[in-house]
Amino acid sequence: MWAISFTIFLKECHVRDRCVTKEKYNIDRKRMIIVHTTKNNRKYGCLHMKNTLELRIFLEFSLKSSKGMIDSESAKSHQLLKLIVYILMNRERDISHQELIDILWQDKHTDNPAGALKNLVYRLRNLLKCVGDEEYIIARRGFYRWNTLIQVDTDYEQFEQLCDGAKLVQEEEEKERMYSEALDIYKGNVQEDLASEGWMVPIATWYQSIYLSAARELIQIYSHQKKFNRIQEICIKALKVDELDEDFHYWLMRSLMEQYKVDLALKHYNETTRLFQKHLGIRTSELLSQAYKEMISLKNVNTTLDGRNILEDLLESEKREGVYFCEFVIFKEIFRVESRRALRDNRKTVEYILLFTMNSRDYYNETENGKLYNIRLGMERLEGVLRNHLRTGDVVSRFSDNQFVVMLSACKEEHAVRVGSRIIETLFCNVSDKKVKLRCELLTEGNNVITIS
C-alpha cells in the first residue's frame, strides 16, 4: 500500500530537473530520498518537494513556507501550538491518540478526550493551510503522524548538527565558523509557552547546555585570537540565557579589561556580586575575586603620577566618618595587613573579628520565600545599625546573604563582647514582631570562638 501511494507521488517528483521513473530510480524509505542507480555508480538526489517548511522554536515559535507563516499570535491557541510542535518534533514516528491526550491535557480533566483531540487536529489542519495545501497530518487507526514526504528544516536540529560537527573538526578556522553559526541559530531559550511544558523541559535544558558549552568553546578560540570584542558579545548573550553562570561573568570582565574598559568591568563586578548575593546567598568567588584584583591593578597600568597626585588618589574624595564598608576581597586584604602588623608588634591577636549571622525563627509558620524575605529585611536593618554604631576605623563586609563580618580596631576582648551585645540589642529594640534571630560570634586569641547572645 505504501509503495503504491509513493509511486503515484513520484509522478510529480523531479531529481535535478529530470522526470523520475520507477525503472531508473529506487526508493530509500529510511532516508526519504530517491536513489539513482546505474551500472557504474550510485547517486543520491533529494525529493523535489512543492513546499519545504522551516520550524523555529528558539526564543520565538514560527512555521514558515514560501506561501505563508504561522507564529504564536496566528496560532492563537496554546493547545494548537503544543500539538503542532510535538508532532513536528516526533515527525519520524506514529503518535498514538492516548500519547497526544496525555501531552495536551496531562492532569486536566476532559469529558471526551478523544473528541477533543479530533477537534483540535481538525483545527490544526485548517491552520496549516496558511503554509500550503498539502496533507500535512496523516490519520491512521489510533494514530496521527506527520506526512514524511514533506520536508521540514528545524533550527534545533541545525543547531545540534553544527555543534556536533564542530567537535569533530580539527582546523580552528572551520571550528570557529561552525560554532559561530550555531550560536547565531540559538536565539535564546525555547519559546516561553513551550518551555514550561513537562515534555519540553528536558529538551530545552539539553539545548541550553549545548549552547553554553559551544559558547565556552568559541570563547577559548577568540581568546587565542585576541578577539575580545567578540567574547564580550558572546558573554552578553549567554548571560541572558543563564545569568548566574560564573564563567561568562568572568570572561565578560576579562574582555572589557582587555579592551581597556576597566570602569565598565568594575561596574559589572559590582552588579554581579549583588546578583550572586540575591540569588545564591554568596558575594563572590575566587574566580571573580581574581578578576577584581586584576581590574584594580590594571587601572594603574601606564599611569605615572607624582607623589602629590598619588596621595590625592589614595585619600577619599570627601571626608567621611564612621565604619568602612567594603567588598569581602578588600576585607581579606585589610585583615592580612593587620595580621602582619600584629606579627611585627609581637601581638597574639589581630584586630577582633565579629561574625553576625541572621536566620528565620523556627516557630513562625512561614514559607521559604517568606523566610528569605524576613532575612532580607532584617539584614537591611542590621546594616543600618552597623553603620550608626561602629567607629571610624572599623571595617565591615557583607560575607553572604545572611552574614556580616566586622573587624574592630584597637580594642580589648571585653570591649568587643560589649560591641556585639550592643548591636544585637539595638537591632531588636522597639521591634515587637521578631521574625528573625541574630547570632554573634567573636574570634579571640588562639582562634577561639565566643558566642555572644
Question: What can you see in these coordinates?
Answer:
The chain has 453 residues and is an alpha+beta fold. The chain is 51% helix and 17% strand. The strands form five sheets. It has a six-stranded mixed β-sheet with strand order 13-15-16-14-17-18, with helices on both faces. The protein has a four-stranded mixed β-sheet with strand order 8-7-6-12. It is elongated.
Main features:
single chain, 453 residues, alpha+beta, 4-stranded mixed sheet, 17 helices, disordered N terminus
Secondary structure blueprint with pairings:
Layout (H helix, E strand, L loop, with lengths): L1 H9 L3 E2 L2 E2 L5 E4 L4 E5 L4 E4 L7 E4 L5 E3 L4 E3 H4 L2 H12 L5 E2 H9 L7 H16 L8 E4 L2 E4 L5 E3 H14 L3 H14 L6 H4 L5 H25 L2 H14 L4 H13 L3 H19 L5 H13 L8 H8 L9 E2 L2 H17 L7 E9 L7 H22 L5 E6 L2 E6 L4 H16 L7 E8 L5 E4 L1
Parallel strand pairs: 6-12, 13-15
Antiparallel strand pairs: 1-2, 3-4, 4-5, 6-7, 7-8, 9-11, 10-11, 14-16, 14-17, 15-16, 17-18
Helix pairs in contact: 3-5, 6-7, 7-9, 9-10, 10-11, 11-12, 11-13, 12-13
Give the gist of this structure.
This protein is an alpha+beta fold and 453 residues long. Helices cover 51% and strands 17% of the residues.
Output the strand order for the largest sheet. 13-15-16-14-17-18
SS class: alpha+beta
Number of helical regions: 17
What is the CA–CA distance across the termini? 85 Å
Based on CA atoms alone, the radius of gyration comes out at 33 Å
